[in-house]
ROK family protein (Aeromicrobium ginsengisoli), 814 residues
Amino acid sequence: MATAGRSGVGTNQEDVRRHNLGTALGHVHRAGRISRAELTARMGLNRSTIAGLVAELESLGLADQAKPSGTRIGAGRPSVDVKARTGAYVLAVDLRVDGLTVARVGLGGVVRARATGPVPPDHDPYAIADSVVDLMRLVVRDVEPNAALVGVGLGVPGIIRGDDGLVRLAPNLGWHDVPFTKILSERLGPIAMPVLGNDADLGALAEHLRGAGVGVDDLVYLSGEVGVGAGVIVGGRKLEGAGGYAGEIGHMPFLPEGKLCHCGARGCWETEIGAPAIALAVGCPAEQVGALGEFLEGVHEATPDLRVVGRHLGRGLAGAVNLLNPRVIVLGGYLRSLFPLVREDVDAELQVHGLAAPREQVLVTLPGLGGDSVLHGAAELAFEPLLADPVGRLATACLDVDSALAG
Amino acid sequence: MATAGRSGVGTNQEDVRRHNLGTALGHVHRAGRISRAELTARMGLNRSTIAGLVAELESLGLADQAKPSGTRIGAGRPSVDVKARTGAYVLAVDLRVDGLTVARVGLGGVVRARATGPVPPDHDPYAIADSVVDLMRLVVRDVEPNAALVGVGLGVPGIIRGDDGLVRLAPNLGWHDVPFTKILSERLGPIAMPVLGNDADLGALAEHLRGAGVGVDDLVYLSGEVGVGAGVIVGGRKLEGAGGYAGEIGHMPFLPEGKLCHCGARGCWETEIGAPAIALAVGCPAEQVGALGEFLEGVHEATPDLRVVGRHLGRGLAGAVNLLNPRVIVLGGYLRSLFPLVREDVDAELQVHGLAAPREQVLVTLPGLGGDSVLHGAAELAFEPLLADPVGRLATACLDVDSALAG
């Protein structure tokens, strides 16, 4: 997405400079490495302004300038490349029903360290917050001196209220109105205010920025995480809905006399394609349902029961195709492992239930980021304040997280 | 929606002036009448610039200045009101399965004349285009001298390709890849290029601008027009999808072993809440199915069969609530007449199948524009070029449509 820079007349000069600095950093962050000429083209500002912005990013420890990596084409001076430097980083958390992943992610979206751990079976939010902090200690242990922590982002399989990060409902964690943001922020203190996002929304964000949906403005990311949620991007923007609750695709009515869903209704789509239904179809033991994806990796042929699940998946996807007309549908979570087994059945149902015009435009595919879509999305969420105002965010960033967390 | 005016430095002055003139006209058009002070506030430009823009709109015959209608509050000079003048108008067409409505609509969204007629039972596009032109002749007969026709917009119950206005599929007209835009434009010649829109999309647009969804950024408009389509507005913008085909909510999979749908699939939602299903439930004769809304006006109590339809309606709406989290759902077409009969059943199913967080935020309601949502939406579509560039559009507008159509 090209973003035109703002010119300075009629608005506060300092605001404009900060905005342009953030925009430039955003381009560098998303590309990892970008030529100054390309940056100039994307921002629609003149070369000397761009040179000034890049110099400022360098002095802030956020970017390096380097000789171009590619072959020189044409005459004229070769443009200098701008690389993201990991002088600033975030902590990203992927909280799943079956486990916890914490990563230290540098500018440019580079995972510098990661740690995983279990979650307590009772999903006690206080115990989970303690585990999150324990894993954070591990990943910041060898952080570069003076590197600045600029954000903490978490992906949670639930419905998050935007105002205060209250988890309104995370059915598979058994959470109703759990103030997890508050619980975790009490443990992190002044290090950084954690920001929570719905796991599917973050998966969509990451796949859009760095995965199977780069350059795609209409995308659906399906998270298979016991239940099934969707992160939807329409016209390049996240589908939020009135309260930020959009995307609960697992609760589309699907079978009128179907199984009872944990939400209280009967026959929601996820009663047929959720982890318990799939586990039943492949004979996965109850205690392994949380790690269904791994179990499915060991399955090499679809049983007739699994093929029924595949058809339910395809029929439901057709509904998403007809209503949302996406260019790409990314199947995340355990759906990553399921899809290769039942692709034919999915395609066949899509063929029958998808209307021709939108069906011809859609690609159903696996995540470009493998199993890390949500983790990367959590990192992107945490980077947002830095990209909005690099100077302002750095001014209040924590420079010694290791000691702060040890204390 | 407040729209900041553009300042002139760094861009082409003439472009900026045209843009600001269009933005000012847009505010006047949407409000019908607006004080100059309010216009100044909404555009974020200074008073003398606004005065200049309003004077130019006056000289173009697009606006009048008038003494304020309200009581004077506070000291200071009272602000002058700016009113839309009908020096420019559009022709709006609502093409339904059961009939055709054509209206002459002036700036401010005022219907100045309307005419209705039948559509041939075989839905031959050439014959329908002839009927459209016949009705146009009627509504332009007493048009003011020198009034300028600035656009022709049509609402069609089908899937329209954005590039060229090809009707890819209008199942209830029996149209597949019908170049109706081309057929009609051959009849209109240089008068104006017709622009087609999906009926539900236009209903959503009109309800958002002038109906039950004013100020609401997340809205679903359901058109009941034999089949059922949705126009969806998310975050204040139309949900287009990759190819402009989004909104085919009638083809959400609903009953796996349900009735065969005209789309070729089985059990689409509209097989249960479409006009034929409702007609069956209320004993509406086959030949009146096209005018089901009128028939339902004569029904005063829901039969058990109709209550089943109401429950299907509610269950499907819950799916839209869970996936899209809209603030308002507007029920248009024959659903306007159905809803009051089955409201309790709709509400009961919404209660069961809607997740609490999004359900608590949604209002299911009737159109603010009665049966004219699509017609008004077609008019808004036709006004768009004028609002984008008033001077440019007026320069090529047709000033004597009456003679041109007679020829």
About this structure: Residues 151 and 382 of chain A are 5 Å apart (CA to CA).
